[in-house]
Structure formats: structure tokens, C-alpha cells
């Protein structure tokens, strides 16, 4: 039995293509893996603070010297990191905002990319500690960006996940969603077909 952690990052609760893809992915996954457990974290309903002095203090200050704000920031980071550590499969739903990922998803990454916990520094450079996990990234894009110079989602997420040892990453892009009905329908259909293959 595997544990699946799903991270939603769309600012919209209604009319979100990335949320639609997530629902379809989870339904197909549960059908194929009925014994697996699914955990959902919605970064729009439960926003995570951006990296700040309190979080840095919580990481770097001895426990007995931490302020209440630093302790609270560290407790949240620990909870998010523990969720990731417990997961066998990670699903990131990431609409494209201004050529990149939502700031809420970046904030989540800033809490879980942690030296000594999810990666470590060695004499040969950084080494990820989360090997063996799989990740699926579901994106929704108004234009067509895959493989182009304006796609700052996939390269960044591959690097960030690889940095902590997650190298088995599958991307499912729904593209052309704001380019008229023909492109939108085609882009969504292709994403759904790809989703059906991997889930």
C-alpha cells in the first residue's frame, strides 16, 4: 500500500483546470490502487507563509533560544516536511501563473527543501534524501509552452524535486486553454489521455 500526497495550488476553487485534472487523477489512481491512501493539502484554502526571518530562525536557532514566532514557523515546516517524507507518491497541481508556478507552491517548496532533512550537503555537493518516491505534476496553461524558452515550470520543478532525490517525475500539461475552443479542447483532451496512461 502506498501513500499519495496531493498538493493543490490553484487560486480558484471553481473553474480550475488543474483541479479538474487532480480530481480525475485521484479517481483513476484510486480505481487502480484501491488500497492506497490519499492526503490532500490545498494551498489556496490553507495558505503557507512565504520564507521569512521567523522560519530561518526556527531552522537555525537553538530550540531554547527560539521566539514563539520562530517555534510556530518551525512547527509548520516540520508538519509539511513530515507529510512529504511519509508520501510514496507526490502529486503537484500547478497552473501556470506568469510563466511559472503559483507563489503558494513556491512557498511550500521553501518549507520542505531542508538541509539535513530532505537533502544534505556532502563533499561531492548536495545529495537528495528522498530517493524512491514518484511525482506527477499536473499543469494548466493558457498558451503552449512545453519545451520552449518561456516554460519556467517544468525545468524548475524537475530541478527542485531532483534536488531532494525525486527523479521519477511525470509531467501532464494541459496547454492552449486560452487560445480558443479548438486549442482548449485539444489541450485538455491530450492531458486527460496522458493522465489516463500514467494514473
TrEMBL record:
<keyword id="KW-0285">Flavoprotein</keyword>
<feature type="binding site">
    <location>
        <begin position="16"/>
        <end position="18"/>
    </location>
    <ligand>
        <name>FMN</name>
    </ligand>
</feature>
<comment type="subunit">
    <text>Homodimer.</text>
</comment>
<dbReference type="InterPro" id="IPR023048">
    <property type="entry name" value="NADH:quinone_OxRdtase_FMN_depd"/>
</dbReference>
<comment type="function">
    <text>Also exhibits azoreductase activity. Catalyzes the reductive cleavage of the azo bond in aromatic azo compounds to the corresponding amines.</text>
</comment>
<protein>
    <recommendedName>
        <fullName>FMN dependent NADH:quinone oxidoreductase</fullName>
        <ecNumber>1.6.5.-</ecNumber>
        <ecNumber>1.7.1.17</ecNumber>
    </recommendedName>
</protein>
<dbReference type="InterPro" id="IPR029039">
    <property type="entry name" value="Flavoprotein-like_sf"/>
</dbReference>
<dbReference type="Pfam" id="PF02525">
    <property type="entry name" value="Flavodoxin_2"/>
</dbReference>
<comment type="function">
    <text>Quinone reductase that provides resistance to thiol-specific stress caused by electrophilic quinones.</text>
</comment>
<feature type="domain" description="Flavodoxin-like fold">
    <location>
        <begin position="3"/>
        <end position="197"/>
    </location>
</feature>
<feature type="binding site">
    <location>
        <position position="10"/>
    </location>
    <ligand>
        <name>FMN</name>
    </ligand>
</feature>
<feature type="binding site">
    <location>
        <begin position="96"/>
        <end position="99"/>
    </location>
    <ligand>
        <name>FMN</name>
    </ligand>
</feature>
<keyword id="KW-0288">FMN</keyword>
<dbReference type="InterPro" id="IPR050104">
    <property type="entry name" value="FMN-dep_NADH:Q_OxRdtase_AzoR1"/>
</dbReference>
<comment type="similarity">
    <text>Belongs to the azoreductase type 1 family.</text>
</comment>
<keyword id="KW-0560">Oxidoreductase</keyword>
<keyword id="KW-0520">NAD</keyword>
<dbReference type="InterPro" id="IPR003680">
    <property type="entry name" value="Flavodoxin_fold"/>
</dbReference>
Amino acid at each position: 500500500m502506498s501513500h499519495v500526497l496531493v498538493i493543490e495550488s490553484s487560486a480558484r476553487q471553481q473553474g480550475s483546470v488543474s483541479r479538474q485534472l487532480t480530481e480525475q487523477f485521484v479517481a483513476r489512481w484510486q480505481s487502480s490502487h484501491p488500497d492506497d491512501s490519499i492526503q490532500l493539502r490545498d494551498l489556496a484554502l490553507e495558505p503557507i507563509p512565504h520564507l521569512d526571518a521567523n522560519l530561518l530562525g526556527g531552522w537555525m536557532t537553538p530550540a531554547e533560544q527560539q521566539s514563539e514566532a520562530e517555534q510556530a514557523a518551525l512547527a509548520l515546516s516540520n508538519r509539511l516536511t513530515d507529510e512529504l517524507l511519509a508520501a510514496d507518491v507526490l502529486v503537484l497541481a500547478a497552473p501556470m501563473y506568469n510563466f511559472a508556478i503559483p507563489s503558494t507552491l513556491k512557498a511550500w517548496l521553501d518549507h520542505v527543501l531542508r538541509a539535513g532533512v530532505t537533502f544534505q550537503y556532502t563533499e561531492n555537493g548536495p545529495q537528495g534524501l528522498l530517493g524512491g518516491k514518484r511525482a506527477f505534476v499536473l499543469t494548466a496553461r493558457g498558451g503552449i509552452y512545453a519545451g520552449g524558452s518561456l516554460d519556467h515550470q517544468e525545468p524548475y520543478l524537475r530541478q527542485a524535486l531532483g534536488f531532494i532525490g525525486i527523479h521519477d517525475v511525470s509531467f501532464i500539461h494541459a496547454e492552449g486553454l486560452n487560445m480558443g475552443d479548438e486549442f482548449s479542447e485539444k489541450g485538455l483532451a491530450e492531458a486527460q489521455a496522458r493522465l489516463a496512461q500514467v494514473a
